[in-house]
Amino acid sequence: MVTADAVGDASHLTVTTRVNGESLQHSSVDKLIHSIPKMIAYLSGIMRRSPGDLLATGSPHGAGQHRTPPRWLKVGDIVEVEVSGVGTLRNTVVARAGGLGR
Question: Which CATH architecture has domain 4-92?
Answer without folding.
Answer: Alpha-Beta Complex (3.90)
